[in-house]
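Milestone M4 deliverable, item 7.
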Amino acid sequence: MTTKTVTVIAALFATAAALSSCGNTIRGVGADTANAVDATQDAGRNVERAAN
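Output delivered:
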C-alpha cells in the first residue's frame, strides 16, 4: 500500500466516525427537546391544578 492509499483510508474512517457521532448527538438533542416539552406541559398542568 502506498502512503496515499493509507491516508485516504484513514480519512474515510475518520469521516465515518465523525458522522456517526453527529447522528448520536442529533438523536440526543431530539430526546432532550422531547423531555423539555413534557416537563413544560407537566408544569402547566400543575399550575392549572393549583389555580383551581
